[in-house]
Design brief:
It is a single chain. It is built from 13 helices and 16 strands. By secondary structure, the protein is α+β, with helices and mostly antiparallel strands. Strand 4 and strand 5 form a beta hairpin. The relative contact order is 0.11.
Length: about 450
């Protein structure tokens, strides 16, 4: 039985082949007097394969009209040098079998569709050039994440999706319950016997494993019930969160900066065709910007100094800034794109705007936190050294009005062989937006979950 060959391998062939079997979908069909051209794809690469279907094939006139846009077909033929420009090979069909017809309502025609329209047909949009490219890059990027940490002797940990604790302390959580939500909920009678939620982070659980296996990371879905409809926020998203024992803030920044550069380098190498497409049609200048980040060292600046730079810049920002406030995207981009002209890492943030688990600095005002900022997007990594001192952590829980009982297992890490440890989180979709130039998070995740929208 003839084995199917992927289009990406056919197009990369070094010599003609007498017999080739491909299976996939028709992008478009163009008819001539005695034959038809099919633009054919199986999703394995961006470039389609041109197929020449001779009119003398058996019953040609009875089935060729079934080979319309969107139809799935099985084609056997010979790979021959192409006579057309812009392609090395084409397939001379010896037989064509229509596996699944696509009727006239098929919405993906050979033209440019708006992102808004494509979100309405998210079940079909991976067949388009743009979204096929996005999700191929997403797949390779996920593999690069695992490779990066495996090469550095990190262990991959699966942390709970259902949790009883709020890592960030922000309270923007999705409740998990089997009880009737229209009635007053008695948590003691619920499935888990206590209030439980979809996790916003695997960090706290990962810390327990870092205090046993030294270097670990999580990579999985996280959830936030934030009523935000910006282009950067989704209710369900994926997070990459490494944790390292015996590591201070400096080591944390070193790893985060190396991680960002490694993912850029890997994507440019493994997804060159897709990246050229994004640079041409999505974000002109994307490749130059990514290479710019890759070629430069990361500048490091304390939060206080970063705010002073912004206050003295003379710029008029949409969000006014003062000491003690979080930096907004416009502030972060000014620092990277205009002032430093390179990626930067901002560290030592005011403790009042950071979560309870971050290590308090000796000044009593700041914590050992850091954010990695890149041009075009702003923050792409956020992390910190964790508070390893028992008494200090207990005081942080109290100051944030968090239950010591709920976090007793986390506090125990400070009782039984506590060590300095650090980690960070990278939003996988945000990194994908940075790499592809796609400006809306809804367009880099297969099925976006945002306020009011949980389709497909």
């Amino acid at each position: 039985m003839l084995k199917r060959v992927l289009v990406k391998h056919v197009l990369g062939a070094t010599e003609a082949m007498d017999t080739v079997l491909v299976e996939g979908w028709v992008r478009s069909r163009r008819d001539a007097k005695d034959f038809s051209f099919l633009d054919f794809t199986d999703g394995s690469c961006l470039t389609g394969l041109q197929v020449i279907v001779p009119g003398e094939l058996p019953d040609y006139s009875s089935w060729i009209n079934q080979c319309g846009t969107g139809a799935s077909v099985r084609i056997q033929g010979s790979l021959i040098p192409s006579q057309g420009q812009g392609q090395r090979w084409e397939l001379q069909a010896a037989s064509v079998e229509v596996i699944g017809k696509a009727d006239a309502t098929y919405p993906l025609q050979k033209k440019r569709h708006s992102p808004e329209f494509m979100r309405e047909i998210a079940h079909l949009r991976p067949r388009s050039n743009l979204f096929g490219s996005v999700f191929r890059v997403r797949s390779r990027l996920a593999q690069a994440v695992h490779r990066f940490f495996t090469e550095r002797d990190f262990y991959y940990i699966h942390t709970p999706i259902i949790t009883a604790s709020d890592c960030e302390g922000a309270g923007e959580l999705f409740r998990v319950t089997t009880l009737d939500p229209s009635k007053k909920i008695d948590s003691s009678a619920d499935f888990f016997g206590k209030p439980t939620y979809l996790t916003v982070s695997g960090q706290l659980a990962a810390e327990t494993f870092a205090c046993a296996l030294s270097n670990v990371y999580t990579f999985g879905p996280t959830f936030r019930a934030e009523n935000s409809n910006t282009t950067r926020h989704a209710s369900e998203f994926w997070m990459i969160e490494p944790e390292m024992a015996f590591c201070d803030l400096g080591g944390d920044m070193d790893l985060a900066e190396a991680f960002v550069k490694d993912l850029i380098r890997d994507t440019l190498e493994t997804s060159a065709e897709e990246m050229a497409f994004f640079d041409r049609f999505v974000d002109k200048g994307l490749l130059e910007r990514l290479q710019w980040v890759l070629d430069r060292s990361f500048e490091r600046v304390a939060y206080h100094d970063a705010v002073e730079i912004l206050l003295q810049s003379g710029q008029s920002f949409e969000y006014p800034l003062q000491h003690g406030l979080n930096l907004q995207s416009e502030h972060e981009r000014y620092l990277t794109e205009t002032h430093f002209k390179c990626p930067i890492t901002v560290y030592n943030y005011p403790k009042a705007i950071k979560p309870f688990y971050m290590r308090a600095n000796d000044d009593g005002e700041t914590v050992a936190a850091m954010d990695v900022l890149v041009p075009g997007i702003g923050e792409i990594v956020g992390g910190s050294q964790r508070e390893e001192r028992l008494e200090v952590l207990e005081s942080h829980l109290k100051a944030h009005d968090l239950s010591a009982e709920d976090y007793s297992w986390y506090v125990d890490l400070r009782r039984f062989g506590s060590v300095p440890h650090s980690g960070f989180g990278m939003g996988f979709e945000r990194m994908l937006m940075f790499l592809t130039g796609v400006s809306n998070i809804r367009d880099v995740i297969p099925f976006a979950r945002t306020p009011g929208h949980a389709d497909f």
